[in-house]
Amino acid sequence: MTKTRKIFHLLLFISLFWLLLPGWAIASGTATVTGTKLNIRQFPSTTAKILGQVKKGDKLPVFSQKGDWLQVKFGKQTGWVFKSLVSYQAANSQTTAVRPVQQQTTTSGTGSNYATVTGTKLNIRQFPSTTAKILGQVKKGDKLPVLSQKGDWLQVKFGKQTGWVFKSLVSYKLAQPEAKPVNQAPAAVQKTVYVIATTVNLRTGPGTNYAKVGVARQGQELKVVAQQKASDGKIWYKLANNAWVAGWLVQEKPQVTPVSSQPQDKPEPEPVPNLPPAEQGLYIDIRAIKEGDGTRIKVYANSSVTDQVVLEKQDRQWKVILPGAKLLNPFDGAGQSWPGLELLQVQQLEDDAAGVVLTAVYSSVYAPVLIPGQDGRSLEILVGLGRLQGRTIVIDPGHGGTDPGAIGGVLKVKEKDVNLAIAQRVRRYLAEEGAQIIMTREGDTYPTLAERYTLANDQQAQLFVSIHANSNTSSSVYGSATYYNNENRTSEEIAARLKLAQLIQEEILKIPERKAFGANNGVWLDSRGLAVLRGTRMPSVLVETAFLSNPTEEQLLNDPGFQDQIARAIAQGIIRYFTE
Ligand SMILES: [Zn+2]
């Protein structure tokens, strides 16, 4: 039990401070201290307790790695050291463990690829976001030409327009890109690019070793007549005036798409900055956008960055530290006023712990909401944005670890896995609305029921939502249900719980062909004495998404598309609870 408790507290620590998926990696080898002194900390964070100190030349056995931190043994204890202050010799190689290969953010389609709609209905949206305007709808079996791909979204052509569809609701196979021979001679191209860096040098040839002949500024358009790969593999563009410009400091102008007949209700999204290749080290670019009463800060990186973020808090001041990162362009918004913030500053550090630090001083007590991008290469920090800002919600994926929960009769799908998959999606959709989300578990672990509701009570969460899948001795029983509790509650407290259960069920039943389990739209007063519903002081419900004992529903629960539909419905019910 104490072991479970320790793991639970560690997970709790991670979910509270990072709100991100932990990115652990197994490592083994020896770290030799290169800094004069080196702190050994209890957790991989610069704010964690210092357990001890070692000096230059000391050697420490390494047994795991997380982001920029190494877990080491010293004496009889274990602790964490900052990787850039040691030289790390992995047991089986000359260098530190290689990062897993990252998927490209955007992949161009060849136009010969088709997505076939697998869901009953599918919305086509203006941007790759579930909140973007719906441009149209297609039905099961429809085929759409795929133009490009971004995270979980595909850009498709329909009629004369282009739009975005959610990847898990279509069947789609990306054709393997053809291997192109390396071309060392300039290849003729005709395109217009614009400068994304603050300034770029124009040179007499394709490389930084060529003489500088001029400068172009951010936003300036340049006509490209040829391109060439330099000896280091990087692309350079030859301009109409015969000067050369570095390909990674400019971006191609997007093609003009046909004007939609409907009025535009959202500005075009900002283009993703063009960053140097990952082999050149971690580069980031930071943009801030004013949105009504709030500010959206976007961090773009050229390799996985979300598992390396370190957060430091002091009163209303938050520091978001990206160890080892280099800033591509200086942040030029320091002198501006940003809604929701008294100060926004981005600095490049130059000492041992080199990296970038973003300092934000909040006007209110709200914590920043961090939303990691799907591929780990981007991070959004929301200030005063979203319908759920200032709300703290506990999401409880039922079961876990040694307790698998119900097990499907045909595919042997485990309830604990389905619950977690749905809960992680619920977390994302609520975080996008500015809510602070606390997960009772992030992985395959088993916090006790008391630990789950105590966490919610201690954190003074405003809502607790437990996610489960149902089971019955009869395989023909099916449907969705949500439970609430009325023991020792005032009439107001009961009304709040009932409202939450009703709204979640209402949203779930909007999913095509979804049926309620039982009367009252599947809203049940708990008669089983469910511990998490009894123990939570705030409004709480337990959602039984579908029956794993029913073969059709087991298949649905195993489908990421259905998991996403259920997650959206639960999130939408919660949003309505707070806003209606
Ligand atoms: Zn369960």
UniProtKB/TrEMBL annotation:
Any one Gene Ontology molecular-function term assigned to this protein's record: N-acetylmuramoyl-L-alanine amidase activity
UniProt keyword terms in alphabetical order: Cell wall biogenesis/degradation, Hydrolase, Signal
Domain SH3b residue range list: 28-90, 112-174, 190-253
A GO biological-process term: peptidoglycan catabolic process
Signal peptide range in chain numbering: 1-27
GO cellular component: outer membrane-bounded periplasmic space
Record region (Disordered): 256-278
Source taxon at top rank: Bacteria
PROSITE patterns: SH3B
Protein name as annotated: N-acetylmuramoyl-L-alanine amidase
Record organism: Carboxydocella thermautotrophica
